[in-house]
Amino acid sequence: MKTIKEPAREIRVRAEVDVLVVGSGPAGIMAAEAAAKDGKLKVMLIESRGYLGGNLTIGLPILSYLNAKGEQVIKGAAQKFIDRLRARNAASEHTPCKLHISLTIADSEEIKTVAWEMMDDAGVDVLLYAFASDAIVEDGCVKGVIIESKAGREAILAKTVIDCTGDADVAFRAGVECRKGDERGRMQPPSLMFSMRGVNMAQVRDNVVNHYDEYGMDIMPPEQFRKGKFTMVGMRKQLADARSKGYGLTVDRTIFTTGINDDEVWVNMTRVSGVDSTDPASYTHAEHKCRKQLYEAVRYLKDYIPGFENAWLETVPPFTGIRESRVIVGKYTLTKEDLLEARHFDDEIAVASYPVDLHHEEGGDCTLIYSKGDYEIPYRTLVPEKIKGLLVAGRNASMDHKAMAATRVMATCMAMGEAAGAAARIAIEDGVDPSEVDVKKVQKALLDNGGYLR
Ligand SMILES: Cc1cc2nc3c(=O)[nH]c(=O)nc-3n(C[C@H](O)[C@H](O)[C@H](O)COP(=O)(O)OP(=O)(O)OC[C@H]3O[C@@H](n4cnc5c(N)ncnc54)[C@H](O)[C@@H]3O)c2cc1C
Predict the structure, then answer these.
(1) What beta strand segments (E) does 98-235 contain?
(2) Do 336 and 401 belong together in one domain?
(3) Which terminal Cβ of the chain has fewer Cβ within 10 Å, N or C?
(4) Closest ligand 1 atom to the C-alpha of 410?
(5) Does one domain contain both 201 and 176?
(6) Ligand 1 pocket check: which of 24, 29, 30, 60 to mutate, most ligand atoms within 8 Å of Cβ?
């Protein structure tokens, strides 16, 4: 491979803060808010895109605030976020679901607004359009990050950095050991979401209920479609028929979720196998393919699903969503067995219930494996094994391939983010590295904020 030598140069220090959060997805906004709590610390949140929210803004239902018994297990800051959205009529109730345990619908645009409101109220300094391209590491401790922007290359120094990039970008650059995918390095495929409006929802519901057996549905009983919000996963027979007639569909199931508006759905029916989003050429390939696929999915829905005849393509989010990329190797790696056996950890910082939801690395299907009960996420999954001064929250925390396929959902990522933010704050207050923080104090902070632990 051809290389060039980049000359060393002096760069500007844009800011010096106590806690720097990188990435503003569900984990990042909760981490920043929790770190800034009480207003004692200087907290900064940087984001490479022009808005806050990450994957919360691409039209996905927020899965698994509830457990299989319908009890709420994700509470605290994640619930307060929903309360803010509800005050704007922009979020639904937490709705039980046989397949996905529970779903909560929230409006993508309002999420961006509410995330700003949260950062303003917490006194978090937000910097958009800033990409963290490197980590500043001294003696095995992260001291800040290098950012790239229209202003050039700059440094932000911090006592603690929380990596919420989804791709463990900061951790990777800091030299933290990272993994990708299954034993062969294969990852879950990315998908480009899109919304449709003009759907006759009454007709969709009637058809599913009245023709349930003809459709090939995935374990959800017909009652689930009668009223309220739902995710449609199934209609396999229609899909197979469309494929046999030449429709260019890459998924085996029809998947769409009701939106905030009655005539609105968000469709999850594109996918590209073999993508590594940490390589821009590979991610570009995914964008290119998904954009072609979405028109085939629109054509299929309009031709095959009663109620969609007069619907139109309304919104395509600005990026193809990444289900899986890098995860760190932390002080503890949560395994599929921990999760399915519902094992207890003394350093639990979140309780979750979502099943292993593995979109096959190849082909168009998905496997769900349910846990025997609620499971716990230990604090050590947020702490890199070796490097200090750094926490990692969200889908890039330390999980094996299958455990990550469960913990990646957004309610769980929010809970991990809140825990990381609280831990960073408490560690600075106590003058210790986040790897040495008193986890009991973190647990108390989470409970004091209305959280739930076992
Ligand atoms: C197609 C698809 C369907 C899904 N379905 C569901 C679902 O139905 N329900 C559900 O709850 N979950 C679902 N998920 C999973 C969920 O959306 C993600 O796992 C979750 O959003 C991860 O949260 P996060 O905060 O870790 O990262 P993200 O939401 O990815 O946020 C990361 C943020 O960091 C920013 N960033 C990244 N790198 C840098 C950098 N170097 N510098 C600065 N900023 C950076 C990004 O721009 C982004 O804003 C789905 C995911 C996909 C892709």
Answers:
(1) 101-104, 125-127, 131-138, 141-149, 152-163, 178-180, 194-197, 231-234
(2) yes
(3) N
(4) 11
(5) no
(6) 60
Residue for token digits 């929210």? 53
Give the containing element (helix H, strand E) for 295.
helix 280-304
Ligand 1 midpoint to CA 226 (Å): 31
Where residue 63 falls (left for φ over 0; alpha for ψ -120 to 50; beta otherwise) is beta
Q: Say which amino acid occupies 90.
A: A
CA of 422 to the centre of ligand 1 (A): 21
Instruction: Note the pTM of the prediction, 2 decimals.
Output: 0.98
- The whole-angstrom separation of Cα 63 and Cα 105 is 9
Q: How many A from CA of 46 to the centre of ligand 1?
A: 15
Binding site membership of 60 for ligand 1 (Cβ less than 6 Å): yes
What pLDDT digit, counting tens, does each position of 16-35 carry? 999 999 999 999 999 999 99
Question: Is the residue at 6 inside a domain?
Answer: no
List C-alpha distances in Å: 218 to 63, 232, 236: 17, 9, 9
Our count of domains for the chain comes to 2
Other CB atoms closer than 10 Å to residue 310's CB: what's the count? 11
- Going by C-alpha positions, the residue among 17, 257, 54 that lies closest to residue 136 is 17
Ligand 1: atom nearest CA of 271 is 1
Q: What is the CATH number of the domain that holds 88?
A: 3.50.50.60
Q: 391-426: per-residue pLDDT in tens?
A: 999 999 999 999 999 999 999 999 999 999 999 999
